[in-house]
Amino acid sequence: MDEIYDPAAVERAAQEHWERLRAFEVREDPSRPKYYCLSMFPYPSGRCHMGHVRNYTIGDVITRFMRMQGYNVLQPMGWDAFGLPAENAAMQNGVPPAKWTYDNIAYMKMQLRSLGLALDWSRELATCDPRYYRWNQWLFLRMLERGIAYKKTGVVNWDPVDQTVLANEQVIDGRGWRTGALIEKREIPMYYLRITAYADELLEGLDSLPGWPERVKLMQANWIGRSEGCEIAFPYAPDTRDALRSDGVLKVFTTRADTLFGVTFMAVAAEHPIAAAAAARNPEIAAFVEECRRGSVMEADLATQEKKGKPTGLHVLHPFTGEPIEVWVANYVLMTYGEGAVMGVPAHDERDFEFAQKHGLRIRTVVRSKTGAYEEVRAPWIDAYGEYGVTVDSGEFSGLESQAAIDAIAAALEKKGLGRKRVQFRLRDWGISRQRYWGCPIPIIHCDSCGDVPVPDDQLPVVLPENLVPDGTGNPLAKTPSFYECTCPKCGAKARRETDTMDTFVDSSWYFLRYACADAEDAAVDSRVDYWLPVDQYIGGIEHAILHLLYSRFWTRVMRDLGLVKFDEPFSNLLTQGMVLNHIYSRQPAEGRREYFNPADVEKIQGEDGSVRYVAHTPDGGTVEVEYEGLGTMSKSKNNGVDPQQLVERYGADTVRLFAMFTAPPEQTLEWSDEGVQGAYRFLRRLWHAVYEHVSAGPAPALDPAALTAAQRDLRRMSHQTLAKVTDDIGRRRTFNTAIAAVMELLNAVTRFDDTTPQGRAVRHEAFEIVTMALSPIVPHICHALWKALGHDSKALIDERWPQPDPAALVQDEIEIVVQVNGKLRGRVRVPVNADEARIRETALADEQVRKFVADKPIRKTIVVPGKLVNLVV
RNA sequence: GCCGGGAUGGCGGAACUGGUAGACGCGCCGGACUCAAAAUCCGGUUCUGGCAACAGAGUGUGGGUUCGAUUCCCUCUCCCGGCACCA
């Protein structure tokens, strides 16, 4: 063993050993319990960032831990390789997205390898590989056959200058990111997947996932948004019948049918047919509808914009009273939810209340809440107005409890044919069409005579040409005849291939299945999926809590219904890691865009008066004063990323892994700190040195537990306590930071333990073995070397079994008890471990400090927490 | 705006089921080693008062439940994630 810790040499040796033995390539083995540990695959953006390092280290710790527990562990890796950044890079430097992507994959693979992850690279896949995405196409066609996939129009962001569809992130303050043009909404035909058909099952399925964080399940449940309510039809008044030139009804969905008699207006979305009819005859309405058409399609934008509305002058009739009610167009009504129309009940809905106040509409009180005593609803709004209560002024339905009123009104409406109870979901069907090049082609051919014709299975995959370079003005596929020109599979006539590609969420909705059988050539999945799936532990960023995870749950169910897999839920346990943050420094030049400076180049300057300023070093050798903007997630745009590669080269992968695991628990955000990395490095050096000192003194004799001194027993107890804690922290709690802290404490104790007797050395040897074992999932390279140095030449550490604490070593005969008087800490006493309440109380009262506070007051109550604390109440 | 989460020393965090607040690490201060510096090692480090023993205060804000609250309940403030075409 070398005296000096040389991470580069240590890591090279360990990685060579694992690679030579193909240690992490696994096969189905029915005789052993399997464990599928999966981290979300990366988008190959160019270089790994700290978020990847954190994500994959967490997965690796669990993988290595479970492997040592005797499981057959699969940990695969692949590439989420389609997506927008490749097109953006292409626009910038003229390189085709394919080449950019494959180059990035090669570099990032090298980076991941240098981290020493226990990955089975033989299963590697990339979603831009036709061998993968042909099955996207195949599965899409099966969904089309079953009506799960269908076509309808959808709304997109349209840049009128570039004549192109923009992603939400490309719309900044309502303008196109490249052109600065005001963005418009535009309706185009798209393919949708009927996720709503699975809404109930996706919601109920959450109950079968005890291994998922509650907050993620809650977010998904709210996203699905099941609500039970009533569909109510308001027949058109004569003016509306004229305007639309038809009989008909305006349908709304409401959960508060009990407030039906409080309706004083109706509000419809700008895209609603009644709005269109009103716009056709009234220029003011037309202008308002036009105004609503501008701006982005993002819900956050719609929800934060000022609530506006215009009366249409058209009316519908109340289903019971026949009273005419005016229809308004309002920008806060979503065409995509329910019927694109709502009934306005200002007395009992806060949003309607505000709208009515603003436009001077009537407020009609029809429910009295039981908690808020009021006769009439009037400003300002109080929450009691929105509560359930007893109906008033509601004709034959007056005097009923809200729920009874809802039932009665629903029944009466149904009898009239003007409504019924129904369930409404907030969840919408999943639009998968993208007017973009770098994605999986949708396998459809448009024929003038046959319509939309699916590409026959034997012509799959529809291969994406890899040599195109997008220029920001629309999809290059639509300008490439060699791609879109084809013949109709049905009639043989000239036809046009669909040029839209699929949402990249399609790619990531089933990749975890494909890892089980990545080389299967004639099927999407084969029987190996039955062995490995479901995923036992899935690890990824909290930002995927809803969309990716919900789509994957949906897709898995579709594949189940196609008979391809035998389970409902793809991920049994989920760990959502927090984001990685770093400081943000910037400067606003007199002209042009705000500049961001990497924190590595910024210096903090403390003035003598306590003032603080920040100065950044520029590439030309100069300095500029910059502003501190606080912490934010590491990103290219804020220039606050840290390159893990430099750190690996400087300190080694183990240091980077240790830092990522030690600095915060996995679910929390992680703040970057240069000093923290150095601290991690220092610890590993200290560990190396301590083991070196120990083994240099020659082999340790065998441990004889019966022959130990009290101090030796103490250290041995601590070793086994630490082992028990680390096992629990990694295995159950997944708090790697506290596991590391416990090992650090043990190492501190070992370092202080200067007993050189034979049994002292034996106890120390055991402590080092436990330290090495316990840290090995986190810092596997150094532990691989230390294990050998500790005399284990025949078996590598990764092939050892995780040890169990010795119960005999944990036994203690005396313990410390905390004494409180009236809940305040006043002393500590030592008592035998099996002392009863009387004995503890007696010992506590003998303590001088305690006596001072008890004085001669009678003890009214004694609370004993066994093994921990006694509280004397006087 | 809606949904979800968070806030504890100078800093990152710990306290697992309502029971010792501040483990562990960073930083800082003092000491050892050194011609000196770096590295390393040893000691100290929540705040206030006190030489000390010790006492009081203290987990974003305000209130509540309890013998006892960082932990449970209510209120407010600020920060972060998601909002369906970033991945």
Brief overview:
The chain is of the alpha+beta class and 874 residues long.
What's the structural blueprint in terms of helices and strands?
Blueprint: H1 7-20, E1 34-39, H2 50-68, E2 72-74, E3 78-79, H3 84-93, H4 97-114, E4 125-126, H5 130-145, E5 149-159, E6 164-166, E7 171-172, E8 175-176, E9 184-193, H6 199-205, H7 214-224, E10 226-235, H8 238-244, E11 249-254, E12 265-268, H9 273-281, H10 283-293, H11 299-304, E13 309-317, E14 324-330, E15 341-344, H12 350-359, E16 367-369, E17 389-391, H13 402-416, E18 419-425, E19 430-431, E20 433-434, E21 444-447, E22 451-454, H14 481-484, E23 485-487, E24 494-497, E25 501-502, H15 504-507, H16 511-514, H17 528-532, E26 537-541, H18 547-561, E27 574-577, E28 580-587, E29 595-597, E30 602-606, E31 612-617, E32 623-633, H19 644-651, H20 653-662, E33 670-671, H21 674-696, H22 710-733, H23 736-752, H24 758-775, H25 780-789, H26 807-810, E34 814-821, E35 824-832, H27 837-846, H28 848-854, E36 861-865, E37 869-873
Helix pairs in contact: 1-25, 2-20, 3-4, 9-10, 19-20, 20-21, 22-23, 22-24, 23-24, 24-25
The chain binds one RNA strand of 87 nucleotides through helix 7, helix 11, strand 19, strand 20 and strand 32.
